[in-house]
Amino acid sequence: MSNPILIDPLRYVREGRVQSGTIAVAALEQRVLDDLADDRGEVSWTLTGFRDPLSRPSFRLVLEGKVTVGCVRCLENMVYDLRCDSVITLFTDEERMEAAVDADDTLDAILIVAEEEFDVAALIEDEIIMGLPLSPNHGECGEEHLLRAKSDRQNPFAVLAKLKGSRSE
Ligand SMILES: [Zn+2]
């Protein structure tokens, strides 16, 4: 389970704070790890508090890191370059939030409780899940294997033979 990163969300916005950090993938919640092929790597984050043009309290969350996902075609692991840059609008009133989302379906909105601590780690986890590709794939699976075989100094024909074997199963 990840360590919570607690902030007072409205104060964070009011003071226009910017905070950064790095989370090890291995420290993320199981719900994120379920979408990944292994727990290597880390994700760096920067959270900025600001008011949007409608004067609504907002967060800008930028994530960057390399995570491992499984290719849906060949089932081999692949490193995915995770980059997210999201604006999240904060609401303290559920009805207002629903009205705003109805008016703008691209709005990334969350409901917060004023004066209550907010866990940035949970938000980072949500955004990582949303930032992952739905069906990750190498594009050119075979090429990727040959490249990897070369860099691993393995015999590429052995890898090909293994591939052929697994394909006929
Ligand atoms: Zn592949």
Provide a concise account of the structure shown.
By secondary structure, the chain is of the alpha+beta class. The chain has helices spanning 9-14, 30-33, 94-103, 120-131, 141-151, 156-167, and strands spanning 6-7, 18-24, 42-51, 57-70, 77-91, 109-111, 118-119. The protein has 2 domains: 6-138, no CATH class; 140-169, no CATH class.
Identify the notable features of this structure and list them briefly:
169 residues, binds zinc ion, 31% strand, elongated, 7 strands, 6 helices, two-stranded antiparallel ribbon, alpha+beta
Largest sheet: 5 strands, mixed
Q: Helix coverage percent of residues?
A: 25-40%
Shape: elongated
Task: Give the radius of gyration.
Answer: 20 Å
| Strand segment tally | 7
Could you say which small molecules are bound to this protein?
Answer: zinc ion
Multimeric state: single chain
Give the helix tally.
6
SS strand fraction: 25-35%
Please, how many domains? 2
Spatial order of the strands in the main sheet?
Answer: 2-3-4-5-6
Distance between the termini: 37 Å
* Sequence of secondary-structure elements: EHEHEEEHEEHHH
List the helices and strands and how they pair.
Elements: E1 6-7, H1 9-14, E2 18-24, H2 30-33, E3 42-51, E4 57-70, E5 77-91, H3 94-103, E6 109-111, E7 118-119, H4 120-131, H5 141-151, H6 156-167
Parallel strand pairs: 5-6
Antiparallel strand pairs: 1-7, 2-3, 3-4, 4-5
The structure holds zinc ion (ZN).
